Amino acid sequence: MTDLPLVPTIEVLSPGPLTTVQDLGRPGHAAIGVGAAGAADLGSHRLANRLVGNPEAAAVLELTYGGLRLRFEAAATLAVTGAPCPVMVDGRAAGMDSPISVRAGQQLIVGLPTEGVRTYLAVRGGIDVPPVLGSRSTDLLSGIGPPVLEAGTRLPIGRRVEGFPNVDIAPRRHGPLGPAILRVLPGPRDDWFLPEALRTLGESAYVVTSESNRVGARLDGPALKRAVHEELPSEGVVSGALQVPPDGRPILFLADHPVTGGYPVLAVVIAEDLDRAGQLRAGDAVHFRVLRPDPVAAPAVDSRAPRGALPAASRARDHRVTSRSAGIRL
Amino acid sequence: MTTHIRTAGSSALLVCLDTPKHVTALYHDLQADPPEGFIEAIPAAETVMVVFDPSRAAATTLGPRLRAAAERASMSARAIDDPSMRQNPVVVTIPVVYDGPDLHETARRVGFGVDEVVRRHVAGEYVVAFCGFAPGFAYLSGLDSALILPRRSLPRTRIPAGSVAVSDRYTCVYPHESPGGWHLLGRTSTVMWDLEREPPALLTPGTRVRFEQVTT
Asked: Which of A9, A54, A155, B146 has its CA 20 to 30 A from that of B188?
């Protein structure tokens, strides 16, 4: 007697340069040295899940520079979002940002992205690998979470869904990714730098180097010069932090960043722009727009600072950081 | 006490404190009574990074709330100074074989014999100040000030799990095989990180630790 597979699975024929399982991450474990990880572009992760009727926390595949080949062992509904790639099902072109139906035995090929880095593939029911510390995300820095996909990996498809796919195609909010302009708030250690460092950051183009991954994007450009040359005692860092090592070239921390760091952070990319940061590709030019902290959010400034030191409200309004963002993943 | 609160992007505030004791006290205060929108606190050497959900909390309301918590924490940090009021009576004892590759070099550099280095390391009453670097990697404060050395100038590329080491003001046990620049004094068979355990880390912030010398 043959056991029929109880759980529908996907077979990985070729994983491409790097494909991992990701969800919304595992916030809450930083105090024991475990970072949040999770999709580097959470907006694309959520969109992929919505397109197939999954809860937004369902695990998906995160492809780095595309190149994935899968065989579906059961019929499935899937969607591909994020960095735009050619998508083929058994040799026939299928679209991004739209539900795709595949039959049992069909092959899916995702090609190379024309821009951006990370493409997301959601399957209706979710990728059902066992969770680790409450999440199915692979953390490449700490080694926690499901293993990186390899040829021959079999991925179980889950059953948790939330309604039916009810959109044919999701209109892309921004069309192509467009230029990378990331808004930053100064701090927490801007006072460890010469006053012109923030101006340098805001007025220069930085180029993403090839030493970039889910931990962070290493940037090349004018050095951000320090005023304080002491050693900074280790302190907590967050996604979007621009940490500046002694050579003055910033590292932009992404989803798998270390929990603490020993170099000062000049400024932090705001939550709304983290998804764009997660699509930075080696060779891309990045521009930073330095926001002034909203004076209404004054606890950012030491309360004993003279009020005259705060920027005028009217001036700050242009750059007010809204707190509507749902993109928090720490 | 001085509390400085600094912006760390749109969804985190960095609370800067005077001493590691204040850090531990504020961390425990936030765990016991988390403010609205609180996601997590990352304690470190002299700071606590407070990460919040900007859709549920604003820096405007969270800032004063953190300032008040830091002041409460400074009171309880004073209480920690008083041995009769120690908050966490549980002490984790870690057996150590003191045969590390840096033991003799450490003894030479601090100007003691090997036995005296071991005696002082074993005599310490340690507290987990914070975790970082790797899952379950705890920075233990309370190291004898005579054993303070800067990190090795050339880090090792591979340190075995269970290595007991010192660097700067801290001692540690490497929970996993990893690279590292600390001075290796010995080794333990105690498992520091186990995903089957809740929490997986043996040592969490505030845990009290002692080392015990064993021969095997």
From this structure: B146
Indicate whether A151 and A187 sit together in one domain.
no
Please check whether residues A150 and A48 belong to one and the same domain.
yes
Q: pLDDT tens digits, residue range B61-99?
A: 999 999 999 998 888 776 555 444 455 678 999 999 999
Are B49 and A187 an interchain contact pair (Cβ–Cβ within 8 Å)? no
Whether residue B15 contacts residue B48, with contact meaning beta carbons closer than 8 Å, is answered with yes
> Considering only residues 19 to 58 of chain B, which have any Cβ-Cβ distance to chain A shorter than 8 Å?
27, 39-49, 51-55, 57-58
- Domain holding A37, by residue range, is 9-156
Q: What value of ipTM does the predicted structure carry?
A: 0.87
Range of the domain at B124: 91-214
Residues A135 and A246 in one domain: no
Enumerate residues 186 to 215 of chain B having a beta carbon within 8 A of any beta carbon in chain A: 195, 199-201, 204-205
Structure tokens at A154: 């079999």
Compare CB distances from A300 to B43, B53, B59 and report the shortest one's residue: B59
Let me know if residue A171 belongs to a domain: no
Interchain CB distance below 8 Å, B8 and A241: yes
The model's pTM = 0.87
Best of B4, B5, B10 to disrupt the A interface by mutation (most A CBs within 10 Å)?
B10
| Count of domains observed in chain B | 2
